[in-house]
Amino acid sequence: MTKFLIRRLIFGLIVILLGMMVVYTVIRSMPADYVKGMARRLVAGNQLLKFEDVYQQLLEDYGLDKGIIPGYAQWVGNAVQGKFGNSWHYNMPVTQKFSDVIWWSVLMSSISLILEVIICIPLGILAARKQYSKTDYGVTIFALITLSFPTFFLAAILKFVFALQLRWLPLVYLRSATHQFMTPMGKVVDIARHLIMPIITLAFVHVGALTRYTRTNMLDVLNTDYIRTARAKGLPEKVVINKHAFRNTLIPLVTYMSYLLPAIFTGAMITETMFSIPGIGKISFDAMIMGDIPFAMFYTLFIQLLTQLSLILADIMYAAVDPRVRVN
Prior knowledge:
Elements: H1 2-29, H2 34-43, H3 51-61, H4 68-80, E1 86-87, E2 92-93, H5 94-129, H6 134-148, H7 151-165, H8 184-222, H9 225-232, H10 237-257, H11 260-275, H12 280-289, H13 293-321, H14 323-327
Antiparallel strand pairs: 1-2
Helix pairs in contact: 1-13, 2-3, 5-6, 5-8, 5-11, 6-8, 7-8, 7-11, 8-10, 8-11, 10-13, 11-12, 11-13, 12-13
């Protein structure tokens, strides 16, 4: 296992370096010169600064005065040391801004992922056990409906129904205007009410796919010889499903779920923007719109690291659910 993890880490590092090389090349090849825009903002209102001097200094600081390969090598060298520069849009170190907002995204993503597992796996198993029944058709219709809703459309419907029509939940933002005057418990409830619709949006975007995937894999397992043998022995149906079929259903599910975590964080960009939640998604979106190259590079690196980490965790989970992996 140790040798396998070392190989996976090396492979993941190579993938990240090549991926970031592509992103860096695309950013350097864009026709818009965001560095000039940043230089103008720094010079504005300060007569002591000259535009050309500030512009040239920014190019040197971020290696943009060199070719793509030397410039990328400089960025990698700084990144290894944890130096990602200052955010041009937020006027503070990139890592500081990231640490200020990431926890809201982690909270929402964690809760939405738990909701997906709680909803999708039981529904998928139930639909497979009662194949071609009314229950199966109902679950299938529910899954297809959630698959058909884009993130922005689902968010708009939730806001229209629960915020504008019923007025049960706040429309946008993370806190109410009177948040600072509330009791500690009142503040927690206030934030929780603001997060309900964003979390539902994040979760339900992936519910349909995971439910259908669970159903398909459970059907494959239920049609195998060892399941028929277990039933022929007279084992209770609950034992057949929970002890024999479910564990083998988890093997392909681990592969699918390993992609959910980075997918939720990238999907959070739309969700957080729709609900004005100051998480890493919205902050990154605003930074990219304003041409904040340092923050855009850091956010891309974060997503790539998260993807590779998810894949490595999936490989480890294989050994937990499939003894054959441990033997090999």
